[in-house]
């Protein structure tokens, strides 16, 4: 089964410059809205395509390369959909999930609507017209999970990237996204502490959530899909011929 990974985020400049303080003051509602909008958008696209159910995992990252507050979502999506009523699996196209440009438009519209409804903020007039949704096929699921797990378990700033600590300043290194070169950044102690602490999630928020047939209470549904795959593999299992059957007719 092919696996797809989606990257959903607001325009970076907009989030850091215009919405940064709102995400800091009410980050719980903001991030909850991101999960809610992302999951509903993917489910609706799947329903319009085959009326089947997707299985996907959303992983939250909160920082940019410079460790600024930059919440964005990575979504691992199974390359197929399951119709529980018909007991039918839709394999889908090999290297195509959904149109990422259409996803980006819906993601932007729904996210702005959710911000207006749930967060007390007046949106600026110059909200960028294009937000980022990067959708690509990554093959099997294990490499994608390993890639995302590194971000979850190594923390916001690994110890090896901290180059010096004095009484007043901290210097750390990061990889520049454009040049791919390592750069250093020096901050006062209090500013550095705030830079790191703003990535500590409020109580009740999770960085990883499962949806569709991968959700925690969908054990029976997963079992149905597994049995469907097993029966299909038995049905199409190649039959080994006997020596007599392999004799070429004269």
UniProtKB/TrEMBL annotation:
Annotated InterPro entries: Transposase_32
Record-level Gene Ontology MF annotations: DNA binding; transposase activity
GO biological process: DNA transposition
Highest taxon listed in the record's lineage: Bacteria
Pfam families, sorted: Y2_Tnp
Positions of the Transposase IS801/IS1294 domain: 55-215
PANTHER family: ISSOD25 TRANSPOSASE TNPA_ISSOD25 (PTHR37023:SF1), TRANSPOSASE (PTHR37023)
Protein name: Transposase IS801/IS1294 domain-containing protein
């Amino acid at each position: 089964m092919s696996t797809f990974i989606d990257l959903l985020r607001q325009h970076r400049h907009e989030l850091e410059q215009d919405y940064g303080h709102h995400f800091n003051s009410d980050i719980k509602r903001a991030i909850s809205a991101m999960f809610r909008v992302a999951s509903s958008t993917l489910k609706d696209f799947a329903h319009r395509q085959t009326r089947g159910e997707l299985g996907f995992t959303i992983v939250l990252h909160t920082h940019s390369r410079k460790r600024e507050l930059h919440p964005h979502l990575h979504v691992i999506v199974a390359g197929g959909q399951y119709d529980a009523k018909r007991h039918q699996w839709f394999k889908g196209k090999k290297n195509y999930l959904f149109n990422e440009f259409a996803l980006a438009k819906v993601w932007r519209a729904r996210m702005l609507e959710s911000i207006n409804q749930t967060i007390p903020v007046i949106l600026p007039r110059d909200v960028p017209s294009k937000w980022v949704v990067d959708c690509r096929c990554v093959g099997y699921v294990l490499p994608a999970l390993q890639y995302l797990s590194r971000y979850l378990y190594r923390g916001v700033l690994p110890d090896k990237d901290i180059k010096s600590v004095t009484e007043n300043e901290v210097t750390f290194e990061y990889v520049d996204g454009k040049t791919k070169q390592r750069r250093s950044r020096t901050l006062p102690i209090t500013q550095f502490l705030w830079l790191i602490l703003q990535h500590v999630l409020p109580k009740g928020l999770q960085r990883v959530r499962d949806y569709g047939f991968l959700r925690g209470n969908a054990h029976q549904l997963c079992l149905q899909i597994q049995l469907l795959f097993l029966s299909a593999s038995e049905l199409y299992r190649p039959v080994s011929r006997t020596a007599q059957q392999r004799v070429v007719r004269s």
